[in-house]
Every structure is written in C-alpha cells, then in structure tokens.
C-alpha cells in the first residue's frame, strides 16, 4: 500500500489517551484481573505497533490479534508479552506460531490432532486457548463431550501443547434490552456448565470484552480482552452510556486544497447531485472513499475554520467538496473526526450518518492515510 505522506490528510492518534484509558480500566476492575489489549486490525485503525508499545508502557498482560501476521508484526517489533490469535488457524501454521511463542485459539479437535503431528516433528510446543461457543455461533467447542475430548488430547500430548487459556465471547453484552441481558446470562450459564468438566482451569480464563467489563463487571474469568474502549469509544454506540473518563484517541484531519466561488445554478460533483441555490464558496478537501470516507458521507457536516460545513455533491474516490460560509485560504485545517475548539465530530456521528457502528468507521480508514502520533 502506498501511504500518502505528501498529502495533508492524516489520522492523528493520541497515545496518551490510550494509556489513560488502560489506566482507567485497571482502576475500575478488580486488581486480580489481567488485561489483554486487543490490537487486531491495525489496532482498530490506530496503528498496531505504536498502540501495543503504548499499552506495554502502562503495563498489560498480553495482546489479542485476529490473524497470525498481526502477531508476527508485534514479535518483530520486540514485544515479549503473551500474544493470542483470536481466530482459528490452519494447522500447518502451528510450528510458525510455536516458534514465535504465539498463542492460538482452538475451536475443534481436528486442529489439535493435525497440529500435534507437525509440532512433534519439529520438537515444538504451542500455547493454546480453547474457544467455547456459548452462543456467539462463531468458533469453539459447544458441548462438554467435545471439550473433554480436546482436553484429554492436550493432556496426552503435553509436550506439543501448553493448555494456557479457555475463553468465550458474548454477543449481547452491549445492550440492556431484556432479550440481550437474558441472552448474556444464558451465555454465562453455558460457559460455567462447559468449564465445570475441567479438572483444573488454565492460567487465563477470559470472557469479558469491553462491553462486559463496563456493564457486566461480575461476568467472571480473570482476564479482560480490552478492545474498543481502549481507544476511548463506546461499545454500545449511543445506547448505553460509558464512564466519562474514557477519552477517544483518534482524529481525522486534512486541509483545504482548493477554494472557489461558484454561481447560483452551478453544479458540483459526479452526477450533478448538488446545484447551488445562490453564489457560494466551495472548498475541496483531499479525502475520498478510497481513504474510507464513504460516499454515504455526502450531506454530513465537517469542521472548517470553526464552522460545521456540509459535504456537497458526491464523495469522489480521492476528494470531497464542501460548502463553506465565506472564503477560506488553501491550507486551512479541516476536521473530519475530532475536536475544533468546543465543537466536536465523534466517530459515532460518522457511524450514525453511514448507518453502522463506530468500530467499522475506524477500521475503514485506509492505509493510504498516514497515522501521526
Ligand atoms: C474483537 C474481539 C474483542 C474485543 O472486543 P471489544 O468490543 O472491542 O472490546 C474481544 N474478544 C474477541 C474474541 C474479539 O473478537
């Protein structure tokens, strides 16, 4: 991916906010709880290595990633804490993970059987976290029978496997609607029922994501997988309110690249979807859907020189046009996400415009946009 370092559009990441959020989380949870910083998907768009190092500075017990390559990037950067790949992986990568001391989620016995052979051949041991499917329907063991079989196999092959963790994932911890709370409770009960067949619990028992750590403090386990809230964002969107101490870390900024006066009746953008009703000032800003600033952002208001200004005409691949109330000079700062004085555009405001969740917006900001710390 070519990164646009000669264009004045960038993501600004406040690493102090991330450190602060981890510290707040530590204060709000029991002292015996471990924290795994979830840094998958380039740390939710914030930059995986920089965020992991910031988390390391304030002290976390490990990192969670989605894919092996993310784990390797952290090892390459010199991070030595536990790294767990949350997704299941092809067994042929078991030796690669073992060599780099990368822990993996395991959701079925076939992985263990196949991986055991290749690990034994190379004299390697792989740390594993057994995933339990308690209602998410994604990965994991669903019955005591399956779980017992897996644990027996691991015990039989403890040269090749280190049974390091057991976990599950909630699908409705971010809502207080009755159906959501009931389902959350069902998942807890299922988790307890499944783990009751284990003679000995592994070192890490983890059930909580950000939402559970905020709204279901008694969910159990000894480790929190701390994701979206580490970035200062609310896992529940606008539904439940989050402790006000958490601070967002991301801003998306650009500069006015061109400014022009158009006459009443002139049109702007592909498909001429916008026509000026009077003489207007139009600023062009170098960001577009190729940067993850979606076409659905047409009509949204962004901050230029202290004013909320409407994006007019269609969002192009690389540029947008914005109606400004008066002439502004080329180089004027444009805030697409973040604060300008007292005014603020939250990631959630962008998500509401697009009809999605804040997670998706930050993951969509493409690698073309440089991250500045
Ligand atoms: C992504 C993910 C998390 C983090 O969730 P947040 O809502 O961002 O806290 C935790 N656990 C698993 C299994 C995940 O996939």
From TrEMBL:
SUPFAM superfamilies the UniProt entry points to: Alanine racemase C-terminal domain-like, PLP-binding barrel
Named cofactor requirement(s): pyridoxal 5'-phosphate
The Alanine racemase C-terminal domain, residue ranges: 249-373
Modified residues (N6-(pyridoxal phosphate)lysine): 40
Record keywords: Isomerase, Pyridoxal phosphate
Record lineage: Bacteria, Bacillati, Bacillota, Bacilli, Lactobacillales
Reaction catalysed by this enzyme: L-alanine = D-alanine
Known function: Catalyzes the interconversion of L-alanine and D-alanine. May also act on other amino acids.
Pathway involvement of the protein, from the record: Amino-acid biosynthesis; D-alanine biosynthesis; D-alanine from L-alanine: step 1/1
PROSITE patterns listed in its UniProt record: ALANINE_RACEMASE
Signal sequence coordinates: none
Chain sites annotated for binding substrate: 138, 317
Family: Belongs to the alanine racemase family.
Enzyme superclass (EC): isomerase
A GO molecular-function annotation: pyridoxal phosphate binding
Name listed for the protein in its UniProt record: Alanine racemase
Biological process according to GO: D-alanine biosynthetic process; peptidoglycan biosynthetic process
